[in-house]
Design brief:
The chain has 389 residues and is an all-alpha fold. It has one domain. Helices cover 71% and strands 0% of the residues. The protein is globular, with a radius of gyration of 21 Å. The two termini are 21 Å apart.
Length: 389
């Protein structure tokens, strides 16, 4: 568990020393300050990519995604895209395989390609980690307290989602990057990134009706857009996904362990946002978006008690997790200066508690503990672990 706590405490310490800044103050930074800020952002991305992308046998679906990779790596590009239910994810797997086949010696220094059991699979994790990390850091640095936002993201979004739900994490990274375009009222680029995210994980399509909802006040158009996109997109793009969800989640009545706990974490920030929404320094599009996220999170939480679709609801709710970072990053602003430090400490303590509970009591925490990284393992250790499995 130590690596998780080192990561968490490092950003928590930065949170306590960092000063908040507004979006307007960022625009007034001098060139040198912008350069150092961009350098720091890049360092954060690199740290995240190493922590997430270079992990070894960490995450509940490690073996499943490894099997997907080996099912696609020897296919032609067109076949890899067609075989995969998520075309862009199929492309990522194919690209990773081609780099391995092209020149395996190029990766010898990084050790994973020296082992014939893994070939270029680790590269899939690195690519998806890059997509997630760039989006996350871009999103966090558009908030008043970026370090606090990263701390809030660490217990679940970074630790669990990025290492366990690889496709969802990559698509969520693209969506979070797209939020920066909404900040500039650029709806087109947000929609384009959401469409690209849907090619990695189809559930990302839920962002499209939301985009239309926040861009118009015409209720008839809103209803038409939601109905049209939900039905047509579902028929054309989600056919196989809906079938899989129906067979595995609905027919069998499966429930996602801990769904109430995870969705429950979204309820407090949702209620806080709905209460303080007029105080958030956001444009109209983002105010509407986070209001929609808040309402949807509460509705999904209540649905857990009245339906048997907890796994499906749980997967959809993953895309609402950025709401936590927004709310807790702004929350200290709504109190007096004397209370600000206490509020920040409380948020850090709450995040630490969530991380502690998950690592020690989650049903599938065994897949994350102990944490191991390919950069710090000898080749003999890797070979032994692969044979042992």
């Amino acid at each position: 568990m130590t690596p998780y706590w080192i990561f968490f405490i490092s950003f928590a310490a930065l949170t306590l020393f960092a000063s908040p800044y507004s979006l307007s103050s960022k625009k007034n930074l001098e060139y040198r300050e912008i350069f150092y800020l961009d350098l720091f952002k890049a360092a954060c991305v690199i740290i995240l990519v190493i922590f997430i992308g270079f992990r070894f046998e960490v995450g509940g679906d490690w073996i499943n995604y490894k099997d997907i990779y080996f099912g696609l790596v020897n296919q032609e590009l067109s076949d890899s895209i067609q075989i995969s239910t998520d075309p862009f994810f199929g492309f990522i797997n194919w690209i990773a395989g081609q780099f391995y086949l092209w020149d395996s010696s190029a990766y010898g220094s990084l050790r994973w390609n020296m082992n014939q059991d893994f070939h270029g699979y680790i590269l899939v994790n690195i690519i998806t980690a890059i997509l997630f990390s760039i989006g996350l850091i871009k999103f966090c640095f558009d908030l008043p307290r970026p370090m606090l936002a990263i701390v809030v993201a660490t217990p679940y979004l970074i630790t669990v989602v990025s290492m366990g739900y690889v496709r969802q994490a990559a698509s969520l990274g693209l969506i979070m990057y797209g939020f920066s375009y909404l900040k500039d009222n650029n709806l087109r680029n947000f929609v384009l990134l959401s469409l690209l995210a849907a090619l990695i994980h189809k559930a990302s399509l839920i962002m499209l009706p939301m985009a239309i909802f926040i861009s118009t006040k015409n209720r008839l158009l809103i209803l038409f857009a939601i109905g049209f996109l939900s039905i047509i997109s579902g028929i054309i793009l989600l056919e196989s996904y809906i079938e899989r969800v129906y067979q595995h989640y609905i027919n069998e009545g499966l429930s996602s362990s801990g769904a109430i706990f995870r969705l429950g974490m979204l309820v407090p920030p949702s209620l806080i946002y709905l209460y303080y929404q007029s105080k958030f320094d956001l444009n109209d599009s983002l105010i509407k978006l986070w209001r929609l996220f808040s309402i949807a999170s509460i509705v999904l939480f209540l649905m857990l008690f009245f339906t048997n679709f907890s796994t499906f609801i749980d997967r959809i709710a993953l895309f609402f997790l950025p709401l936590q970072m927004v709310v807790f990053s702004y929350l200290p602003n709504f109190f007096t200066k004397k209370m600000t430090g206490l509020i920040i400490l409380s948020i850090v303590a709450y995040s630490a508690l969530v991380l502690f509970v998950w690592l020690n009591f989650a049903d599938n925490a065994w897949a994350w503990v102990p944490y191991e990284n390919i950069l710090f393992l000898e080749q003999s250790e890797i070979s032994y672990k692969v044979r042992d499995r």
